[in-house]
Amino acid sequence: MTDGGRPGLLPGLYLFLAALWAGALAFFAAGAGIVLKTSPTRADGGIVNRALLDVLDVVSLVLAVLLLILAAVLNRRRPWGRTARGLSIRLLIVAAVAAFVSLYLITPEMVALRAKAGLLFDSLPASDPLRRSWSRLHALSSLTLVVRVVAAAAAFLLGFRPVTTTGAARPGEGTTP
User: Fold this and answer.
1) Is position 176 within any domain?
2) Minimal CA–CA distance to 48: which of 24, 28, 26?
3) CA-to-CA distance for 113 and 107, rounded, in angstroms?
């Protein structure tokens, strides 16, 4: 998205949003364990982490869509390379799907399983079917988070790819020394 000079407003906005998104997701991933360890109970830590994750899921959906729109606009102004454009679009779609799955499928099911076990959830043995189901969902939730971190970081890095320089410059886009 850069042509050697300053990136401009829209490319700069793309880079800022992608960096903000990647940073927020990475910060949550690093801090979730700290929240669990420092909370009075694991259930309290889980409530905090769930609230934060719900917000991150919504933010991920919004930012993935915004970045897709920005990518389309930026590609019309100054075409990206075919690989960078295709990879960016695919990564953003995968990230949006991962956020949707986390928000609307995985997290509600995890909450339902925890509610089904009641206050005794933390004391259930690891071999308990309810606990095993919850652990599988937690692993899937973690996977959707990792997918989004990678996609957001890749979207940011792909934002630095140079634009294609095929054909003549468009009117008003001459080169300056």
Assistant:
1) no
2) 28
3) 10
Q: Is the pLDDT at 161 greater than 80, yes or no?
A: no
Domain interval for residue 90? 9-158
Digit-coded pLDDT (tens) for 77-100: 877 788 888 899 999 999 999 999
Residue 167 lies in a domain: no
DSSP, res 79: P
Domain count, the chain: 1
Q: Which long-range contacts (CB under 8 A, 24 or more apart) does 67-75 make?
A: 67/14, 67/17, 67/18, 67/21, 67/92, 67/155, 68/92, 68/93, 68/96, 70/10, 70/13, 70/14, 70/17, 71/14, 73/10, 74/1, 74/10, 74/11, 74/14
| Per-residue tokens: 43 | 């259930």
Name residue 53's amino acid.
L
Q: For the whole model, what pTM was predicted?
A: 0.83
Q: List the beta bridge partners of residue 154.
A: none
Specify the residue for token string 């692993």: 139
Phi/psi at 62 (5° precision): -65, -50
Tokens 């409530």, located at residue = 47
In a domain, 15, yes or no: yes
For the cut 50, the answer to whether the pLDDT of residue 12 exceeds it is yes
Residues 46 and 59: beta-carbon distance below 8 Å: no
Specify whether the CB–CB gap between 136 and 130 falls below 8 A.
Answer: no
Using DSSP, state whether 45 is helix, strand or coil: helix
